Amino acid sequence: MDRIRARLRAILRPPGDPNLNRVQRRRAIISALTRRLHLIKFILFLVGYLWMAAIPSPRLGRGTYIDENALQPGQVNTYWNWGDVANADRYLGQLEGLRDANSTSEQRAKILMNEFIKLGMSASTQGYVFTSSTGKVKGTNAYAVLSSPRTSGTEAMVISASWISRAGEGDGTLNLRGIATVLTLANFLKSYSLWAKDIIFVVSDNYVDGMQAWLNAYHGSTQSNLQADDLELTSGVIWTALNIDYPGHSFSHLGIFHEGINGRLPNQDLLNSFHHISKWTGGVPVLVYDHLEPQNDLPSWIPSAYHEEIRGYSYRSKNVLRHIGYQARGRGSGVHGLFHQFRIDAFTMFGVPAAGPHGFHAIGRIIESTLRTTNNLLERLHASFFFYILTAPERFLKIGSFLPSAVLISVAMMFGGLRVWSDSAWILDIFVHPEKTEADTGPTSNKWIQRSRPVIPVLGIVLSTHILGGVLFSVLTTSWFSNNQTVASVVLFLAVFVTQLSALLAPSQDEKTTAPASQLLKALNLCFASTVISITTVVNFSLAMSLAILLGIPLSISSPSRSLPLRLGSFALYSGLGLGWIFAREELQKAIWDWEILGVWFAPFVCVVYLPLVLQAGLVCLLPV
Amino acid sequence: MLASFAHLLLLLLSSWSWGILATTPSHEQIVGDFFSKNGSTGGTTSDHTNNWAVLVCASRYWFNYRHMANALGMYRTVKRLGIPDSNIILMLADDVACNSRNKFPGSVYANPGRDLDLYGDNIEVDYRGYEVTVENFIRVLTGRMEPSVPRSKRLLTDARSNIFVYMTGHGGNEFLKFQDNEEISAFDIADAFEQMWQKKRYNEIFFMIDTCQANTMYSKFYSPNILATGSSKIDQNSYSYENDNDIGVSVIDRYTHYVLEFMEGINKTSHETVRDLFDIYDPAKIHSEPGVRSDLFTRPLDTVRITDFLGGVAQVEVGAPRTDAPLDLLEPEPAPQSQSQSQSQSTPKRSRPATAPAHIRTKGVRGQLGRAGRAGARGAACSCLARSWAGRGGSRFCFGRLFINPYIELSVR
Known about the structure:
The complex is a heterodimer.
Chain A: H1 2-12, H2 18-35, H3 37-54, E1 62-63, H4 82-100, H5 105-118, E2 122-132, E3 135-146, E4 155-162, H6 176-189, E5 198-204, H7 209-219, E6 226-228, E7 237-245, E8 250-257, H8 268-282, E9 286-288, H9 307-328, E10 345-354, H10 360-375, E11 388-392, E12 395-398, H11 403-423, E13 426-432, E14 444-450, H12 455-476, H13 479-483, H14 485-501, H15 517-539, H16 541-557, H17 564-579, H18 585-598, H19 602-622
Parallel strand pairs in A: 4-5, 4-7, 7-10, 8-9
Antiparallel strand pairs in A: 1-12, 2-3, 2-6, 3-5, 8-10, 11-12, 13-14
Helix pairs in contact in A: 3-11, 4-6, 6-10, 8-10, 9-16, 11-15, 11-16, 12-15, 12-19, 15-16, 15-19, 16-19, 17-19
Chain B: H1 2-22, H2 24-36, E1 50-57, H3 65-80, E2 88-92, E3 127-128, H4 134-142, E4 161-168, E5 171-172, E6 175-178, E7 182-185, H5 186-198, E8 204-210, E9 226-230, E10 240-243, E11 250-253, H6 254-263, H7 274-279, H8 283-286, E12 291-293, H9 307-310, H10 358-377, H11 380-395, E13 397-398, E14 401-402, H12 406-412
Helix pairs in contact in B: 3-6, 10-11, 10-12
């Protein structure tokens, strides 16, 4: 034992000056790391990307659970019954009449308001107009407030349905059954005195813009391009909102749509409570989105032991990709997404259209029980997760099990940038001794000489790309662009491309005294991109992950070259990577509309942060050596 | 005319009081004979003369409905078994009966069928809402109160009081949460009981607690004459029993449910002992392992009646004064051998030198009579009188020093 201890001590504390030893040890570690930096970077990239690929794995993650004690989901008898279903059918008939009569928004809202008033509730309408580069968006919302009978009404819950369903992402399918459910619920819920919160019923016009106008007016926030009536009726602080989307005749499953605008998510307790209630009280299976679990057969050459795993992986990856699609673009997956900006936990329950077997009876009971659960809340939902990925209705990944993947990529990029930065300060001077020229080619002495690194001009280049992005964005939001999109896209792409070509004219400098601008630009570019990714991981993981995939490798491999065609070619590639989206007509329109009407940050982010980062990498290739 | 009437009254009064003083021994004899008529003590070994209950629900909020119901169930039981509201300290957040989420306003039920409204129309909550704090609980136990605190909020016990302490709430290893705000530790309660012992504020304590890891809460007790029981061992949760689907929350905890079920079979004259109570503990039903701690307790458990603690069935003591009356610190002289006949065999549990100066001894007799009267009549009026006597004696202790209460002096002379 003593011998082992002595040997350990000899290794850990070698004889000699301990301070000197420490310095030497540190130096040895640093040089060992720097010598293997390429390997470290490679490993970081590899682990990061593999981790991302593993996110949908059924082996990762854990089962969902309810964290908040107060919720007590699914512990009540429900009293919604066939009489209420008959009421809902009557309302539906009325709404179908409105649809067939092609009535205007105002007419619809008036009739809905009158229906609420007939139930003895205070109800009102709200007209609004959004002005955007694509034109005006008009509509009228109807809403009613059921005051809590036994409390002061300082808190409220919202039950909402939009006129247009989210089916087909708001392509015009009407949500008549959702609205009929809201009206019937108003009739049903008013007969109970146990509501500890006011219940607000909102039938918002169109798809998302109606609710945006209503929420803005409710919270008194102003939007420069929105003209909306003030709300005549208000209530307390809204804590939770359930958005009902029931477009089909019947439904087989209820799908949870939970992504809010700008990547916000509702507290998971709300989703889990709903899931629990839907499953145990309503008897309706729950899906994430409208993805049914696939039962398809796999090719026979795959061993059957792996079938379950592969099926699970493909199902979950479908969910994860859908989630990333919504979250990275900052696009809410439904009307509920607008609530999150006001710190209201909300989601859409989507009746997945099918021939059966569920209808008004099931959805009414589920909502009744869910409202009893949210009614139990004593404070805002806070206990469970706000950062998570639902890979399946009953499985999720918490932030710690997916966040590091993007951070690893970002760290690899940071290492790369710092390496380029420190390398740029030195140049190897190959000096041939004059007196030994005839003897042999041999002894040359290599000397590292230090050179200056002028940062200001490079920062100027960086700044100019960001300004260019800003200018591009302001052009995109003009009505000129939306009117002539096909031509304008080409013009803008060429304009950006050509302005960047001016880098070809940059003067070349003496390599031995000053570091080349391309090298410095690459260092700054990598460090900045890495920082952006790291910061975004917490705010919007899907966006950070997409950035890590789009920027990670491309930015790291950018390098200057001496041949002009190569330089031009690689610059063109980078331009395509950075600005190719300008030809995605629909996508671009939607992103700009989201920004103008809903305040989604995705479009400006792409123009002012993402595009410049890629352009900088392109310039690294383009700049003269 | 008026003057002569007053004279007459004075004369009557003085002759009556003279008669009382003159006939004290025979009066004592009469009362003693009266109470020994029915076979005297009836088998119990306890020598307490008054019963108290401290019932604490340490939780608040709607979803902790069951803890409120636990405490109210115990309240119903002790009241039914004869402890009057004046002797019950009920600490209850009391935010469920009138909660807006309650489908049955003004009612608290402990069973899914909602057969029995525990809230009823006769509830006296002494500490309500935010008054349920660790500080108030310890003040109640130790009697360290502001002079302004009303008597109904005080535990006016004395050295002959049997106290039933019931606690419920959310707890853990050696702590119990009070309203999600603070905790009381096992040490706090143990020290409070020790203070009570030193201040002669109890004869025996029966401590019952229903919370997670409940048995840890009594593990630190070190004062004599405490019998303790809890719902679950260390590292075990205590679970709720049933849920009412209209109320929408669990309405009672398992342990308390089974204890109350047992208690429903008890009445004031029942001879069931705490041993019988502990025998019904079934870990399979309760889903945790209840514990009992009796090492500080001197009497064998199968002689300790449930009603010794949960009932208002006190013993009558007739005879010479007990020497361990609260005033014994005045004159520490050796205890006289002639003690009361009925109590001397079973009582010398207090180890401190028992003595009573001669001039107080008479008061002792009066005190005993007061207790006897209360116990005998089992009525509210007498118990009030006796309690005021005992309470004044007890509550005037402070840090071991004795302040003689002017009321007692008056009543003696």
